[in-house]
Specification:
Helices cover 52% and strands 6% of the residues. 0% of the residues are buried. The protein is built from seven helices and two strands; from the N terminus they run E-E-H-H-H-H-H-H-H. Strand 1 and strand 2 form a beta hairpin. The chain has two domains: 42 residues; 53 residues, no CATH class.
Amino acid sequence: MGGKSYYCDYCCCYMKNDLNVRKLHNAGASHTAAKATYLRRFEDPRKILAAERNKRPCKRFFAGYCRFEQLCNFRHYTDKQMEQLEKIVIQLKKKTSKKQRNPQKTKRNLPPSLQPLDLTQLKQTNWDLSWG
């Protein structure tokens, strides 16, 4: 298969561009943990907080290294990080509650083509106009 290499974005490593090599790599524990860590950045903080509250701290992680990383059944967040996560969740709740209070505010800023139809103006329209 020539000199081309395959680069794994999750693990930041190069490997032989061969189907069997890639399958073996993707099935490995280190790749699965790296992928879970990467995708965790895009999860909802409320979901992360709910899951992490129920876990006990990981002794291996705080001792230096846990090979399971994000797939571990124990918490990898310090108490300070948990407090920061709680603050983020509280801020998100405040933002969503403000959006729900003023639903009409978003309609004012829309261009005319995207605003909802006013049926009273539609009834007053003269449809007998000739075009062209």
